[in-house]
Amino acid sequence: MDAMDRKILSALQADGRLSVTDLAERVGLSPTPCARRMARMEADGIITGYVARVDAAKLGYGITVFVFVELERQSQKTLQEFERAIKRFPEVMECHLMTGSRDILLKIATSDLTAFDEFLENSLLRVEGIRSTRTSFSLRSMVNREVAP
């Protein structure tokens, strides 16, 4: 990765719909070497995909909740079973294995408090191996970006 690769990544993170020609112009390259650099970063797994960012609230998901989960034990089997179970829930936007007193951090999106309560009672708390949970509600997102290239 050099400075030009970082410029390409930064431009793509700002607008993933740029054509190679427009991207090349924006970063100061001709299209062919720009396309080669993109292909290399894709092959190296640096660029993992191209997605559309959406406004969750405009899709009816007005509540963002962070749930800290403490597991009964943190064995490889328990973690694998938890991961397999949690992937089934469309409300789970992110799931992170953590250090410290909490084992797992979940980012949950639901339409409202009632929907979150239903998710908590009927889905999350039925997953085997959970010792406890702590919940925090997001009032608003102040920064939302990808890794700085």
Describe the structure.
- The structure is a single chain.
- The chain is an alpha+beta fold and about 150 residues long.
- The protein has two domains: about 5-45, Orthogonal Bundle (Arc Repressor Mutant, subunit A); about 55-135, Lrp/AsnC effector binding domain/regulation of amino acid metabolism (RAM) domain (Alpha-Beta Plaits, 2-Layer Sandwich), CATH 3.30.70.920.
- It is about 35% helix and about 20% strand.
- The protein contains five helices and four strands.
- The chain has helices spanning about 5-15, 20-25, 30-45, 75-85, 115-120; strands at about 65-70, 90-95, 105-110, 130-135.
- It has a four-stranded antiparallel sheet with strand order 2-3-1-4.
- A hairpin with a 6-residue loop joins strand 2 and strand 3.
- Helix 1 packs across helix 2 (about 20-25) and helix 2 (about 20-25) crosses helix 3.
- The longest helix has 13 residues, at about 30-45.
- The radius of gyration is 20 Å and the shape is elongated.
- The termini are close together.
